[in-house]
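User: Please predict the structure of the protein below. I'd like the answer in structure-token form so I can feed it into my own downstream comparison script.

Assistant: Understood. Taking the following sequence of 371 residues as input:
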Amino acid sequence: MATINEGFRDELIAHRVHLTRYEAGVVSKLVAALSTDDAELAARLLVALEDVPAGAVSVKKLTQVLAPVRDINRKAVTRFFGELGQVLKDFTEYEAGSGFDLMKSLLPEVVGERGLLKKIDAGQAYVRTVTEPFHGYALKGWTDKLEADRFARIVNTVRTGLGSGIAPDEIVKSVRGTKARNWQDGALNKSRANASAIGYSTLAHAAQVVREQTAAANDHLIKAKQWLSTLDNKTSPPCRIRDALQYTPDNQPIKHGIPWGDGPGRLHFHCRSTYTLIFRSWQDMGLLPDDLTSAEKERMNGEVPAASTYPEWISRQRASRQDDILGPVRGKLLRSGGLKLTSFYTEAGRWLTLDELRQRDAAAFKRAGLE
């Protein structure tokens, strides 16, 4: 029988997997919103270049000439962060509710009946998300920084092109990119990558704000935190060394010397780490023997779950969850075909297609009844 701490950890890992999908979809839409006015920006830039005087042009003069372009850039960045703000409102509300519901589903009913389980205010979590810094800036700071960096990139590209004697229409292509390459060969593409990193990190920051407030509101039920890193070929060294390490509720190391830093989700850009809460034993929660069944007492022993890798975690999940994460064919190959999770990837970490898997191990498909 799994303990409450084991169950909570496993559900949080599943939540992190689904959150990764959610983040990808949201960030893709946000970056598309940032690029909505690129055609107008390119047209204004071409017109503005007609007013650029011959010879060397200072950054100050060029900035003045490109004022219409700067206005469009500001509008695009404002739209990006406006839509991100609305996403954060919905996201913090969802995270606050799902975190509470998960604890309520795992803890014995008596915990809720005694009023021991506390739900946080999602509105307060949202305010903290947008006002507290992450990676050095609060959300307003990231707005200003993205706007300034994006415009500076445009100015520098234009100045370089003018200095090299490039024609105005070619300079515009250097800024926006070309349709043949899906606009990815222009200076603005770097700003899209920066916006994407900001989007991912903001959502991770929001998730951790909710987690921190939930832990603080229920500190009478919690004795420790345990770092959970997504262990694959993309995991950063700082996250690898922290995986499964324990920290006190106020983020002090337990039996090791590795600092918490900015915490999971905020340790670096696009950090995919999270953490689980280690609940106290039923005795340390102040519950009485008659409050619980024997099974509930056994599940609420306060023990810390043993370290678990992602392949180990997914191997013990229910079939429907395996199919949801891996796809139904790979799910059957995992359960009945004798394949391990690592078999679905190349040594470089690339996800193998089903045809490639079949070429590598046709017998596994037969064992899984897929032939």
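That's the full token string. Residues 157 and 175 are 6 Å apart (CA to CA).
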